[in-house]
Amino acid sequence: MSSNRDIRLQISFYRHVKRRKLQTRLGPEGVLALIDLLLYAGENKPDGSLSGMTEEDIGLAAQWTGDPKILVSALLEIGFLDNAPSINEQCSSINRTGPEYSIHDWFDHNSYAFHAPIRSEKARKAAAARWGKQGVTCSEHKRAMPQASNSNAPSPTPTPIKKDMSESDFNLFYQTYPIHQSRKKAFDAWKKIKADNGLPEIILAAIEKQKVHKAALKTKGEFVSEWPLPATWLNGRRWEDEIPEAKGSW
After folding, report:
1. Alpha carbon 151 to chain centroid, angstroms
2. Alpha helix segments (H runs only) across 98-165
3. 103: part of which helix (H) or strand (E)?
4. What is the reported pTM?
5. How far apart are CA 92 and CA 136, in angstroms?
6. How many helices (H) and strands (E) does the chain have?
7. What is the gyration radius of the CA atoms in the chain, in angstroms?
8. 192 C-beta neighbours (distance < 10 Å), count
């Protein structure tokens, strides 16, 4: 289960034409089902992909009491759902036996939820870096451990551990970036730009947004440029590239 605990819904949602269409077609229960589905995604599907979920699964997640096919059909036609591969699946070849649903424009509206796994992994690695190498033992375990010596020799002063999260942040970048080649050059480029003080989060968000943009262009049959090597992308400060705003969002 994801560590994320909220989703973002714009204030204008209550008067948005897509919401009104959904309410006209399925009644207030349809709007509530949509909100429940978004809440479910925020907690269990933080990347917005409903990969592996059937129409019945989606109906259960949305707590919809009617025919799940009617709900999914309405959400697709109105534009709250997409029938397309998820962002991560766009970059690999996967055999599919059925529709792959995803929530429309999830990253644009819920990038905080999207990055919940990244934040959790980063926090885990930071905790491991801080405590894992220091041999810290809780008092209960300490009492259960035998003393190494009964001598009165003074305990050595522990050597301070230098906190260097650059490699940890780089690992997250390298895992997120679509191409895994020339790792050393990429790490050298990472250290060169001194990615700290919030820059890693900006870089990760830019990669995901560029993934979404390229996937949208590919869906429309438009030209999609290849991803450069990670070192080239970093040296060119490509996270600063402007991306056209998506149209028709909710």
Report:
1. 53
2. 106-109, 111-114, 116-127, 139-144
3. strand 101-103
4. 0.47
5. 42
6. 12, 2
7. 23
8. 11
Q: Long-range contacts: 83-87, Cβ < 8 Å, 24+?
A: 84/215, 84/219, 85/49, 85/51, 85/215, 86/47, 86/48, 86/49, 86/51, 87/47, 87/48, 87/49, 87/208, 87/211, 87/212, 87/215
Provide the token pair at 137.
Answer: 């033992």
Contacts of 69 (CB under 8 A, 6+ apart): 55
Q: What digits encode the pLDDT tens for the residues 193-229?
A: 886 677 888 898 899 889 988 988 888 888 989 999 9
Is the distance from CB of 52 to CB of 221 less than 8 angstroms?
Answer: no
Cα separation of 239 and 103, whole Å? 24
According to DSSP, residue 129 is labeled: I
* Predicted local confidence at residue 150, as pLDDT: 45
pLDDT for 22: 93
For residue 148, what are the CA distances in angstroms to 101, 138, 156, 212? 59, 17, 13, 57
pLDDT in tens, 115-145: 666 656 665 666 666 666 555 444 444 444 4
Q: Which one-letter amino acid corresponds to residue 31?
A: V
SS3 191: helix
Amino acid at 75: L
Provide the residue type at 105 as one letter.
D
Q: Helix 68-78 crosses helix 28-44 at what angle (to 10 degrees)? A: 90
Nearest to 239, CA basis, from 216, 217, 215, 211:
211
pLDDT band at 21 (very low <50, low <70, confident <90, very high): very high
User: Which tokens go with 44?
Assistant: 């269990």
Contact 208, 111 (CB under 8 A): yes
pLDDT score of 120 = 61
